[in-house]
From TrEMBL:
Keywords: Aminotransferase, Pyridoxal phosphate, Transferase. The lineage of its organism: Bacteria, Bacillati, Actinomycetota, Actinomycetes, Kitasatosporales. GO terms for molecular function: transaminase activity. This is Aminotransferase class V-fold PLP-dependent enzyme. Its cofactor is pyridoxal 5'-phosphate. Belongs to the class-V pyridoxal-phosphate-dependent aminotransferase family. Csd subfamily. Residues 24-382 form the Aminotransferase class V domain. It catalyses: (sulfur carrier)-H + L-cysteine = (sulfur carrier)-SH + L-alanine. It holds the Pfam family Aminotran_5.
Amino acid sequence: ELAAWQRPLRAQFPIIAAHPDLAYLDSAATSQKPRPVLDAVQTYLTTTNANAGRGSYPWANTTTALVENTRVRVKQFLGDPDPERSSVHFTSGTTAGLRMIALDWLPAFLADGDEIVVPHADHQANLSPWLEAAELLARQGVRVHVRQLPYQAGSGDYDPQALAALVGPRTRFVAATHVHHVYGVDMNVHRLRQVVGPEVPICLDAAQSVGHLPVSVAQLDVDFVVFSGHKTMALPGSGAVWARGRHGPVLRPGGWSGTPNTVGVAGLAAALDWLTAAGTDRIERWTVALTSLLTDGLARMDAYEVLGCRTSLRADTEVQRRRSLVTFRHREIGSQDLGFILFSRGFMVRSDGHCQAGRDAEDGSVRVSLHVHNTPEEIEELLTTLASLQ
Ligand code: PMP
């Protein structure tokens, strides 16, 4: 049933259709774009391209409406229960979104002696902005203690005991990741919320989850969600920050005084529509099944070591599964060499480091990351190739 649903979706990616001998296994780095997104961008540029927020002619008004309507689309896509109060800001991607929260919003929220909890070995984009914010405040005489949340060996999730020990009465803010870009499991955001209590804002780097699974801000009970357009079937240079209403304005004053990336917004709107029509729940089931196939296949080969959780299920709970990516190493072949060998057989994977921050950053490895266009045949062929390299 899922296979019949997936086939026509795969056919909508022109770049995939044009290269039947290649398997694109690097969607965590950036996603391919389905035809309706490409069409929406072209239609926008050839029919109503204008600046937004000003002008008294139809193209300008249409562009303004596009930007405003896409804010609403983002809220709907994230299951926002209170769209009247929340806000959506368009950014150039996750890195810029996290920096915006860290440098524009967070400093005014913190006082001398406050503590923030941030990830220790997640994407670099989700560490350096928080450290920079603390440095900025320190120069103003406000000392903020940055507590770094470590991983639990073997699960790929944050260490629950360390988390409980790090959080205290002065904890004012938590930055976390939804799906880790190396370990591939979804972090236990519910546990984070339970430990920090209802008041402390939680900011979620959702770069690897939005578009891959239903992301509901109501269920997750988080305060900020940040994601990249280029990883969600839209264009590079687009992305969004969703902010819960209780935090008030997040952007620096200025509003419409800058030109927004209207082309990026047009692409993002089309991408969210496409993902909604495809069904993020089905995309999740499809990619989780493919990733399980790969993880279970790798577990049967001694030559490979899977990073984070070794199985397709996370160690500490049966319900949280490995998401759409697996990172592994060959015990003898270096990751760059393995990447070249795999490309010579038609597989495009990410190799080497993965912009992971901190002391626990993993050395070179190969990451296979999937999206809705990938197929069980691609995974079977990849496993056959990996087996032949043992
Ligand atoms: N966070 C995570 C978890 C990521 O995977 C990435 C992209 N690799 C980023 C942040 C940065 O995203 P961008 O390059 O789109 O700013």
